[in-house]
Amino acid sequence: MNKHMPAEPVPFIDLAAQRRRLGKSIDEAVSRVIGHCQFINGPEVTQLEAALGAFSGAKHVVSCASGTDALLMVLMAKGVGRGDAVLCPSFTFCATGEAVALTGATPVFADVDEASFNMDAASLKRGIATAKRLGLKPVAVIPVDLFGQSADHDAIGAIAEAEGLFVLDDAAQAFGASYRGRRLGTFGLATATSFFPAKPLGCFGDGGAIFTDDAELAATLRSVRVHGQGSDKYDNVRLGLTGRLDTMQAAILIEKLKIFEDEIAARNRVAERYAQGLGNVVTVPRLSSGCTSVWAQYTIRLPKGRDRDGFAATLKAKGIPTAIYYPKSMHQQTAYRDFPVADGGLPASESLSGDVISLPMHAYLDGPTQDRVIQAVRTAVST
Ligand SMILES: Cc1ncc(COP(=O)(O)O)c(C=O)c1O
Which of 93, 98, 145, 195 has the most ligand 1 atoms within 8 A of CB, as the residue to mutate? Predict the structure, then answer.
């Protein structure tokens, strides 16, 4: 490389590379929708739901307009509302707790495990006790499979069962990952995912889906998705949303799902190369026992005392973007700071918010480019 030329910027997520690989297939799929004009509830929506069911092993798949709607629709379908408490991890994207608060229920924040970034079972138990002490009725728990790795569904499921709570898995970042040999989408009462473009399986706009083995819940979700419609189109039987996935997005996702397994394998290779190249200079993410990840993010922790902003600036100067997920946990954010937190506080969430940073991660990150990232990180931490 000419030392006077600025280094070529590395994409954080390379959607263009995926588009090149898919060639004309998406353009043709979109053209078919434009041709048949069934932009809402077209045949591709049913086809996608069947394909997602086959992929995940879930009996029912209800596609919807976003990952946030996927969470909200399940809570609405279950009648969650004022006086109810729903336990959520604090170290997550805001939509997890936001969906709870939108129903009028109270999100009660639990801490996460520092190694997996996922909900800590002991803190969940404390959070349930906190909710009861505050006079709330704990009704549900939303574990999040953060950064692509499955949460500890056995431990969380056992607590939920003992306490009579239903589990709504927030797999917005982790569709395609598995836990003890089973794909996400098959744990708890229902699973929500997002097809936001930057997600491991993303569409060309907003989209989401709900997975469940419960036929009655699936039927209620299909009603909630269309303003709570009943068998008579003009007699709405419950409150609902305009919660449908556009046919165009379904057509795009059908094409992307065909290469998704292969992309997951590629993401795992990228993660492995990072772990080998960086494991002795920063804290790299590790898979918990029985868990796989689709590596929605590759999130490292800097050595104690290392200035994160300075680190990010050093990488940026070399054309390497980084992102911080999340600089504030939910209980530290303005809109959420008055909601309760589990007894004992949330020290792991607070400490992670202070020192995590995510590196470029996608299925098309080639070896030489990734080595550039690795070298830049190694240099930045040692200076
Ligand atoms: C953990 C988590 N939950 C929910 C969502 C919401 O998904 P959407 O943006 O599709 O509404 C996201 C999206 O980033 C997420 O990361």
Answer: 93
